[in-house]
Design a protein that fits this description.
Elements lengths: L11 E5 L3 H13 L3 E5 L2 H10 L4 E4 L2 E2 L2 E2 L4 H5 L6 E6 L4 H9 L4 E4 L4 H20 L16 H14 L5 E4 L6 H10 L8 E5 L5 H9 E2 L11 E2 L1 H4 L4 E5 L6 H13 L1 E2 L8 E2 L3 E6 L3 H6 L5 H7 L2 E4 L10 H16 L5 E2 L1 H9 L5 H16 L4 E2 L6 H19 L7 H11 L1 H4 L7 H19 L4 H8 L3 H11 L5
Parallel strand pairs: 1-2, 1-3, 3-6, 6-7, 8-15, 8-16, 9-12, 12-15, 17-18
Antiparallel strand pairs: 4-5, 10-11, 13-14
Helix pairs in contact: 6-7, 13-15, 16-17
Protein name: Two-component system, NtrC family, response regulator
GO molecular function, one term: ATP binding
Pfam families: AAA_lid_14, Response_reg, Sigma54_activat
Length: 488
């Protein structure tokens, strides 16, 4: 077979796949491409190799004997000089593809993959890696105020570093309380404009007239109450960063004027005949879906295109549960320093309750709850679940004990499986009369029982299992691994 033009690129490749025929085929192909290739058949073996050796590209199967390959993406991407990952799976799964791309994989291939496609994918990944290494060294990001160890936050930090190195407009989206302003400020402080001002405007807090005057400034006498000249925030951000929070609330007529400013960096203060210039860098944020606002006619599509040159979507706290403990340690330590008291410890039940709550207010709500617990603990040296606000503990208890009962109350005829779930929920009261297991064990027991019953009643039929449970394929296999179960 003829080799492609750039096939003489040397690189180390690892194939993690339990199909020996696939491993043999991949090793033969990659060797002919003058690449060094090693193969392993388990996820654990693959992770051990990745920790002990440097690889440029990893071909990763999804269904492995000891786990789901997608679950290991975070750990792989967190490695120093992490390899590019190409998912190689026997079954196409749209949810799995979405998770893989969100996890930062290079490509997602479905077996059997044409040889040419496989070669192109690995060659492009190696070329990208070579160009990335050839770039000038970048100063490490100062993330002192950003706490996050989850794979989702690693991706956010990469995007923040990309934004800090550029002058392009950046759009930060996410639910209320996810830390959009902190993210914007961190980007500014790591950028070449760190010595300039970081100017903030909350677009939702001002009327239409005031937004225009606040942004562009005005001249004395321009309108009633304008008794003196005022410099606008665009001019104040000259040489620095302008941060527009809740930009989805910016009035339509102001959007049109601001789009011109973004394109030309020129503007006219209200009531002035003279144009002024400002060399500012824009970072915007919103908790709204701007695409929906565009369809509703409330946001300009051309402005949206200009804003999202770099797009950063902050994950909600409920999707980064592993970050709750480090966030809590950081905030409680800061509170102890502020109140000049010894650093407090934590009971095991404290983090169990925090990890079981949904956090609709995200990190902002977490910090508020932690401060309330800190105050409630007084001079005590350890924080326990009992110090947490009652409303949080009640919601966690209801979510744990009432979920199955609420599901069973749905209208319409119930399937045998639904009837069994309702019966199990009714039996919880008798379980509560004896010695209580801890919360984590209780949740694990109930989850495992549900999965066992589900597999038995569906006789291992995967399609039926996914339809009844509402789980995606990748989530289902992740739960099997967690519960120590195997599919029929």
């Amino acid at each position: 077979m003829a080799m492609l033009d750039d096939s003489n690129v040397f690189g180390n490749i690892l194939v993690i796949d339990d199909d020996q025929e696939v491993c043999g085929t991949m090793k033969s192909l990659l060797t002919r491409m003058l690449l060094h290739c090693e193969t392993v058949s388990t996820l654990r073996g693959g992770l051990e190799k990745l920790r002990s050796q440097n690889f440029d590209v990893v071909f990763l199967d999804v269904r492995l004997p000891d786990g789901n390959g997608l679950d290991a993406l975070g750990e792989i991407k967190a490695l120093e000089d992490s390899p590019e990952v190409i998912i190689l799976t026997g079954q196409g799964d749209p949810d799995g593809a979405e998770l893989a791309i969100q996890g930062g994989v290079w490509d997602y291939l479905v077996k059997p993959t044409p040889i040419k496609q496989t070669m192109l994918s690995v060659q492009r990944a190696l070329k990208y890696r070579e160009e990335k290494r050839a770039e000038s060294p970048v100063v490490a990001m100062n993330l002192d105020n950003m706490i996050g160890y989850s794979s989702g936050m690693h991706r956010i930090f990469d995007l923040m570093a990309q934004s800090a190195r550029s002058l392009s407009a950046t759009l930060i989206t996410g639910e209320t309380g996810t830390g959009k302003e902190l993210t914007a400020r961190t980007i500014h402080e790591n950028s070449g404009r760190r010595t300039g001002r970081f100017v903030v405007l909350d677009c939702a807090s001002l009327t239409e007239t005031l937004v225009e005057s606040t942004l562009f400034g005005h001249r004395r006498g321009a309108f009633t109450g304008a008794d003196k000249d005022r410099t606008g925030l665009i001019k104040m951000a000259d040489g620095g960063t302008l941060f527009l929070d809740e930009i989805g609330e910016l009035p339509l007529n102001v959007q049109k004027s601001f789009l011109r400013v973004l394109q030309e960096k020129r503007f006219r203060p209200v009531g002035s005949l003279q144009e002024e210039t400002s060399d500012f860098r824009l970072i915007a944020a919103t908790n709204r879906n701007l695409e929906n606002r565009v369809h509703e006619g409330k946001f300009r599509e051309d402005l949206l295109f200009r804003l999202k040159t770099i797009a950063i979507e902050l994950p909600p706290l409920r999707e980064r549960i592993e970050d709750i403990k480090p966030l809590s340690l950081h905030h409680i330590t800061r509170l102890c320093e502020q109140y000049k008291v010894p650093v407090k410890g934590f009971g095991s039940d404290f983090f169990e309750v925090l990890g079981s709550y949904r956090w609709p207010g995200n990190v902002r709500e977490l910090f508020n709850v932690l401060e309330r617990a800190f105050v409630a603990s007084g001079q005590e040296k350890t924080l326990y679940a009992m110090h947490l606000p009652q409303d949080i503990r009640i919601k966690v208890a209801k979510a744990t004990l009432g979920e199955a009962r609420e599901d069973g109350a749905a209208e319409g005829p119930q399937s045998p499986l639904e009837q069994e779930a309702r019966s199990a929920a009714a039996g919880l009261e008798s379980l509560m009369t004896g010695d209580l297991p801890d919360l984590r064990m209780f949740k694990s027991l109930m989850e495992k029982q549900y999965l066992q019953t589900l597999i038995e009643r569906c006789d291992g039929d995967l399609n039926q299992i996914l339809r009844i449970s509402g789980l995606s394929r990748s989530h289902y296999y992740a739960l099997l691994k967690k519960s120590g179960l195997s599919a029929k």
